[in-house]
Each structure stands twice: as C-alpha cells, then as structure tokens.
Design a protein that fits this description.
Helix content is 45%, strand content 14%. By secondary structure, the chain is of the alpha/beta class. It has a single domain, classed as Response regulator (Rossmann fold), CATH 3.40.50.2300. Helix 1 packs across helix 6 and helix 2 packs across helix 6.
C-alpha cells in the first residue's frame, strides 16, 4: 500500500484539509491502495483541526472534526512513499533536517502542476481565506489522483 503524507506548519489547517479532501477523493474514485496521513513541521501534538478548516470541509460533506495534529518525525517520513508540502519553506525545512526524503518530497503544486508555488496560508484570515486554500488544494489533488 502506498502512503502519502501532507505537510504544513501546525497540521491544523492546510495539511489536515488536504488529508480529508484526498481521502474523500480516493473514496469516490474507489482507490483503496493508498494510505493518507498529515503532519506539521512545528505542530503541537494532539490539537484539533481549526474551526474554519472543519467548517469549510463540512460544506464539502467531509468531516475532519476528529483530526488531531501530529508532529513530523523520521519514522513518518521513512514510511511515506510521497511527501507533499504546502510551501517550499516546509519542503526546505524537511530537506535540511531529513535529507533522506529528497527523492520523494515535493510541494503540492509542484507535484500536481510542475510549478513550485505555495498554497496560501489561511490561518487567522477567516473563512474566505480557508475556502480559497481549499480550492487551491482541491484543484491540485484532482491532478495528483490521476498520477496514482
């Protein structure tokens, strides 16, 4: 089974939304051989997804209310076949700390579209920003699912 890991800063906004959206997309396409996880480079272990992330995905019919943040660690990186970060900053932090991931790490947009652009950070910016981030993520994930 292939494992995909989504990474952001605190694992309460972008990566948790990515995990929820991708699990839903895989389920709708009846793809069962992919395990999806998320974590944060500076996450506080055990926090729930942000209220806004939960609300935005609820509008999509996806429930991430049980999500709990995880801090990235070597084991999680080693177990992952593909690591998708929300920004080039996240990617660079992981490459400096864990050079072993260099063959399997990309920004989300880099893997989807071949351009290393960041997913906007909605943290503290209200529901509109969360919806924009969700739309960016969803567009990328729809390309990525075709590559699996």
């Amino acid at each position: 089974m292939k494992q995909i890991l989504f990474v952001c800063t605190g694992n309460t906004c972008r990566s948790s939304m990515s995990e929820g959206l991708f699990k839903d997309l895989l389920d709708r396409k009846e793809i069962r051989n992919v395990n999806v996880k998320s974590a944060g480079v500076f996450a506080m272990e055990g926090n729930s997804a942000s209220r806004e992330a939960i609300e935005i995905l609820k509008r999509e019919g996806i429930d991430i209310s049980n999500h709990r943040s995880k801090t990235i660690d070597r084991k999680l990186l080693e177990e992952s076949d593909l690591i998708l970060t929300m920004t080039s900053g996240h990617k660079n932090i992981l490459l400096r700390t864990y050079p072993l991931v260099k063959e399997k790490i990309y920004t989300l947009k880099e893997y989807a579209f071949g351009v290393e652009e960041d997913i906007i950070d909605p943290y503290g910016k209200g529901l509109r920003a969360y919806n924009e981030a969700k739309d960016e993520i969803k567009e990328a994930l729809e390309k990525i699912v075709e590559k699996i």
